[in-house]
Amino acid sequence: SSEFRLAVVQLQVTSVKADNLSRARRLVKEAAGQGGQVVLLPECFNSPYGTNFFPSYAERIPGESSQMLSEAAKENKDPSLKRTVGSCITACTVFGPDGQLILKHRKIHLFDIDVPGKIRFQESETLSPGNSLSVFETRCQLLVYPGAFNMTTGPAHWELLQRGRALDNQVYVATASPARDETASYVAWGHSTVVNPWGEVISKAGPEEAVIYADIDLQYLADIRQQIPITAQRRNDIYAVTSTQEGSR
């Protein structure tokens, strides 16, 4: 089949890690029960987002959080993606339906911003970046971004960036945000979203905890690429995109 169902979990993250893991596990099960074949969890789903939290919530991989995801993937026979913090390096792990770890990707570009009078946040104060690309085999033609945009960058850029990347790469784009907590030291924007290759929003959450679904149609993606053949029109005689090192597996 050229179609599969994507589930994006917008989790309400608290200061109690055990509660976060329990809630995430329950929502992964709920997503699988609704036909989700790929489940995406938000950035720092097991920890409040903030540089002061990272050291105390950090884990090794394998660890408590990755073990829960492995078990959830196996229990529901469903690939499960997540983002967490390990050894003070942000890492995204991918698990297959057998519960086995497929890949561990370390975040390359840390989130350092300073918008005068609005927000300053420097991940580099406590985190170290990864130094390699990560690749694994899947039938998905889909970009997923677990992210935690804030109340300054969220309304300005969150949906705009997703629709732009979907359109200029002719792919589906899915983003998973934590649910909004107005009492938190860092208030996430929420609004987890799925955009199709035409740049249309096909599924979107509000600010509260929710699971959203989108039916990903790879034949539709192929049709879009045939109608507007961007990749076939690349001028490799003038420019090229290259990587300085091979992606890890």
UniProtKB/TrEMBL annotation:
Domain of life of the source: Eukaryota
UniProt-recorded name of the protein: Omega-amidase NIT2
Species annotation: Nibea albiflora
Gene: NIT2
